[in-house]
Design brief:
heterotrimer; A mainly alpha; B alpha/beta; C mainly alpha; A: mainly alpha; MetI-like fold; two-stranded antiparallel sheet; 13 helices; 2 strands; globular; C: mainly alpha; 71% helix; disordered C terminus
């Protein structure tokens, strides 16, 4: 009896979480005449394929919209931001964990708190800053601003990660004759590669998901990122091409979901700051 | 295994890690299920569908497992609340148990404010209030520092004598086992090796495992090459019986050995002498002699001395099975 | 490899200098691109700056006076609170329930977990556009399903009716955040020492008593973390509302972020935009204090 209740509950949660994605999936491949049937028509079941599936929407998305361009833009921004984040946050995290002692913990917390300052507060002064720098309507604006979101959290991630790596290995290296700098360059990277990987993944997902800054700084359709272009610009006149829209949403979501699944435990460790033994 | 306890006795399950002693305890508690066999508590068969709370047992875990978010009073009261005892009765019972373990003044504190020894007593109180038929204790002294352990051991034994509830106690420390147990169950790798009083287990070990596990330092075992014995028989004798020949009075029936002394450790109350015995089938085996401080005879290192063991203290073991002859 | 090294400490040994050098870029980024803009954001609230020019003139409390007398702003403020509180209450209920389900083992659990994480993993804007399609007045699958189940007799104009639209927003926020909260609670559940749970079993506590008297109290810090993050993500979110309703119909479903965007960026009135956004600070300060309290608790050895 308890088993049945368990499965029922699991099913309920799964359906609740997943039905929009199922809907995305079939909308992407449904023919228009199967798709645009008023929901008040009870004889037509929207949840299944009443007509055979079609690739028309996908073709439209890839061939007649700026979607491929947006993907390219997003990739450019992602790579740049990941590089900046790793280069800045990893040494910072290492420094706070190993080198700066007691007030390192406080500073680490302070840096973490800046993660809580939302884009929807900062976008007003940023718009002025971006105009000042002449970066309006360019990917450069995003490349400059996104690290303000990734660096705080990733520094904290690296700090937390290093706390769980024993420092005896580094001390041993120092006794064996390496200077502190040499230890950092030689020994530390190998120890924290998993941490660096988490930083890369987190930055990647954050760039892909970001909407507010993209909306604020980018206005030309051909400069948009996927997260911005899909909901805003996949519109012809007043008409939403839902099939193509859902296809785009689907293609972006799946890889992200796979990545998230693989790294979820690490992220949670960062989020809970040791309130939970991850 | 076929094991039964006597009413009101203090039974110790002794073994190293992996011996199955904790598993056995948890099976009695109902936290794990046996793959075959039966478990009876009192006249009730419990192994199949009887949950832990219905078995009339109380358990003290190695980490004490106190509820960190509840005060000492609330910790002790928890099992009574679970059995829906009236409020007033709970109050009385908790205070009575706290009195018994002298922790009444801690009732309003939280576990994190107590020392290890105090927490252990709270755990015992919590077990006590359930009026169980059996107490199950999983290495409760392991987390205390050495000095505390002796007094805690004494307190535990007196307490058990007082309430006379059957107690099953798990430990890997054979000194603890010998000191506490009315009977000891020596376990190894899931099997019971011997069940007996501390004296029986110490003086009449049933095989080489028990002989070497119980007793510190362990029993010496060697192949003496004695022609009157079956070939390769292991002869065993405890270090405290292995003394310089000159110490024994005349008229004692002795077995003598030529003992090549390698090293002597002075430990205050005893001297441990490490060496080897010539002419044995196992010439490399280290033999240990334990001399009390009352024997002041000098034992220089590097020399060979005449040592002896009273024949009545010798034990013989089969070399293949390890069993006692 | 035992050559004697010179006893002098070189720069490469000076840990304090190295520490500062490694930390420098991050600190610079944070101070220059977060700290300064943050201060600037507050200053802008007191200015009459516009996006068109680079001007900056002091306007005192003019902006604040204007918005506090503006019914649209007051409504947005109210909406922000309603949406945040409403969605987080839902999230807590859903997450603790889901955590109980997902701590058990059952067939297909890996797939279920994957699906469960989807709402959190997908970009906000894409999820929002999907829900817009789901709530569409003419084609809504939800309406169809409710009607087919016999639960709906009229018609639900989800995004066209102010109250319904706000409700829709709450649902979407809860939907996208509860997976994250579930995972956090799950991690918390597994960090409760096994022996404490077993002790409560031996002590005679049944499932419900164990849940409410032992597990949930011990989970409180973890649930608090999840709620705090949820509050930040919901209160400061612009995407869901912007895409679902754009603040409409007729400015009835604005929340602080969307109104700040409309007035400050689209309307180019930076001063007013900033002033509106400043009202997000109370939410954040409460969260920051909450986090600090939690961190302090675990340092002092709180519940362990």
């Amino acid at each position: 009896m308890k088993r049945v209740a368990l499965y029922a509950a699991a099913l309920a949660f799964t359906v609740f979480a997943g039905f929009p994605f199922y809907w995305m999936l079939i909308t992407s491949f449904k023919q228009n005449r199967d798709l645009y049937v008023g929901a008040s028509d009870s004889s037509h079941i929207p949840w299944i394929f009443n007509d055979p599936p079609t690739l028309d929407h996908v073709k439209l998305l890839l061939g007649q919209t700026d979607f491929p361009r947006w993907v390219l833009n997003t990739l450019v921004v992602v790579v740049a931001v990941v590089v900046i984040t790793v280069a800045v946050a990893v040494p910072a995290g290492y420094s706070l964990a190993r080198l700066v002692g007691r007030w390192g913990e406080r500073m680490g917390m302070g840096i973490f708190f800046t993660y809580l300052i939302p884009p929807t507060l900062l976008f007003v002064p940023f718009s002025r800053l971006i105009s000042l720098l002449g970066l309006q309507d360019s990917l450069g604006a995003l490349i400059l601003i996104y690290p303000t979101m990734t660096i705080p959290f990733c520094t904290w991630l690296v700090m937390g990660f290093l706390r769980s790596v024993p420092w005896e290995i580094e001390e041993q290296a120092m006794i064996d004759g390496y200077s502190r700098l040499a230890v950092i360059l030689k020994v530390a990277p190998r120890l924290i590669v998993p941490g660096i990987l988490t930083v890369v993944v987190f930055s990647f997902t954050l760039v892909l998901q970001e909407f507010v800054y993209a909306l604020t700084f980018i206005s030309s359709v051909n400069k948009m990122t996927v997260s911005l272009g899909v909901p805003i610009a996949l519109v012809r006149g007043d008409v939403y091409h839902w099939g193509a829209l859902m296809a785009a949403a689907l293609f972006t979501s799946i890889p992200l979901a796979i990545i998230y699944n693989a790294f979820i435990d690490r992220f949670i460790q960062g989020f809970t700051m040791g309130a939970v033994k991850g | 295994m076929d094991l039964s306890t006597r009413d009101g006795e203090f039974l110790v399950l002794l073994g190293s890690s992996g011996s199955g002693k904790t598993t056995l305890l948890r099976m009695i508690a109902g936290l794990e299920q046996p793959t075959s066999g039966e478990i009876h508590i009192g006249d009730q068969r419990v192994d199949r569908d009887v949950p832990p709370r219905a078995r009339g047992i109380a358990m003290v875990f190695q980490s004490y497992a106190l509820y960190p978010h509840r005060t000492v009073f609330q910790n002790i009261a928890f099992p009574l609340e679970a059995s829906r005892t009236p409020r007033k009765q709970i109050e009385e019972k908790v205070r009575w148990a706290a009195e018994m373990f002298s922790i009444s003044r801690y009732l309003d504190r939280y576990p994190r404010q107590l020392s290890g020894g105090e927490r252990q007593r709270v755990a015992l109180c919590r077990a006590l209030v359930r009026d169980p038929k059996v107490f199950l204790l999983d290495e409760p002294l392991a987390n205390l520092d050495a000095k505390l352990r002796n007094t805690a051991r004494d307190d535990l034994k007196r307490f058990q004598r007082q309430i006379q509830t059957t107690t099953v106690y798990v430990t890997h420390d054979q000194v603890e086992a010998m000191g506490l147990g009315d009977r000891i169950v020596v376990m190894e790798r899931g099997k019971v090796r011997q069940v007996g009083t501390p004296q029986e287990v110490y003086e009449d070990p049933v095989d080489t495992f028990v002989a070497t596990f119980v007793g510190q330092p362990p029993m010496n075992l060697l192949d003496t090459g004695d022609p009157s014995l079956p070939p390769r028989t292991l002869t065993g004798f405890r270090p405290e019986h292995f003394l310089p020949q000159s110490v024994f009075g005349s008229g004692e029936d002795l077995r003598t050995f030529r003992f090549a002394v390698r090293r002597v450790e002075y430990l205050g109350s005893d001297r441990y002498v490490y060496g080897s015995v010539a002419g044995s089938g196992t010439p490399d085996a280290t033999i240990i002699a334990k001399l009390p401080a009352t024997i002041v005879l000098a034992i220089p290192e590097g020399e060979t001395h005449e040592f002896a063991v009273p024949r009545r203290a010798l034990r013989y073991f089969d070399p293949e099975t390890g069993l006692r002859r | 490899m035992t050559a004697l090294l010179p006893p002098r400490r070189t720069l490469a040994d000076r840990e304090d200098v190295l520490g500062a050098m490694l930390l420098g870029p991050a600190l610079a980024y944070v101070i220059l691109l977060v700290g300064v803009p943050f201060a600037f954001a507050i200053a802008l609230g007191f200015s009459n700056a516009t996006a068109g020019s680079l001007s900056f003139g002091w306007a005192g409390f003019h902006n604040y006076g204007a918005i506090l007398g503006d019914p649209i702003f007051l409504r947005a403020l109210r909406n922000s609170v309603v949406v945040t509180v409403g969605s987080q209450v839902l999230v807590v209920i859903l997450a603790t329930a889901a955590a109980q389900v997902f701590r058990a083992t059952f067939r297909g659990k890996r797939f279920a977990r994957f699906v469960l994480l989807l709402p959190w993993a997908v970009p906000v804007s894409l999820a929002a556009i999907a829900w817009t399609w789901i709530f569409d007045s003419t084609f809504s699958v939800i309406n169809w399903t409710l009607k087919a189940a016999g639960l709906l007799h009229g018609w639900l104009y989800w995004l066209g009716d102010p109250a319904l639209a706000l409700f829709a927003i709450i649902i979407v926020q809860a939907w996208r955040i509860f997976p994250f909260a579930t995972v956090i609670v799950l991690a918390g559940l597994s960090s409760i020492p096994q022996e404490i749970v077993e002790a409560s079993i031996v002590d005679g506590a049944g499932f419900w008593r164990r849940l409410f008297r032992v597990e949930l109290p011990l989970l409180l810090p973890v649930v608090a973390v999840a709620v705090l993050f949820g509050v930040v993500y919901t209160a400061t979110d612009l995407g869901v509302v912007y895409i679902l309703t754009g603040g409409g119909p007729a400015n009835t479903t604005h929340v602080l972020p969307t109104l700040a965007f409309q007035r400050g960026i689209l309307g180019a009135d930076l001063g007013q935009g900033a002033a509106i956004a400043v009202f997000l600070l109370p939410f954040l300060i409460v969260v920051a204090i909450g986090m600090l309290r939690l961190a302090h608790r675990t340092e002092v050895g709180g519940a362990r």
